[in-house]
Write a structure and sequence with these properties.
Blueprint: E1 2-10, H1 15-32, E2 36-42, E3 49-56, H2 59-71, H3 73-82, E4 89-97
Antiparallel strand pairs: 1-3, 1-4, 2-3
Helix pairs in contact: 1-3
InterPro entries: Dimeric_a/b-barrel, NIPSNAP
Pfam family, one: NIPSNAP
Protein name: NIPSNAP family protein
Length: about 100
Amino acid sequence: MLYELRIYTMHEGKMDAIQQRFDQHTLVIFERLGMKVNDFWIDRTGLSKLYYVMEYRNKEERQRQWDTFRQDPEWIKVKRKSEENGPIVEKIEEILMNRPAFFTR
């Protein structure tokens, strides 16, 4: 399995907007496209950051899923509408990870 930690840093004042977009749209689209989210967190130290972990069989599946997502007509419409008052996400960090053999949960 391949895991990806995604860290989103929001523009000033956009934390509610990203949460609403994930809650009402993005997670539904992910599910429809077969994209698996393992867990989700919101930074509670005062940083405008959101963290989540995706799971894939391999790098090829990851690439295919994200290519499909980015071209999805529903996503394109949702993103455009949600950013009518300016972009929400300032920066996205993508960290690919594998679970070590000594950790077997």
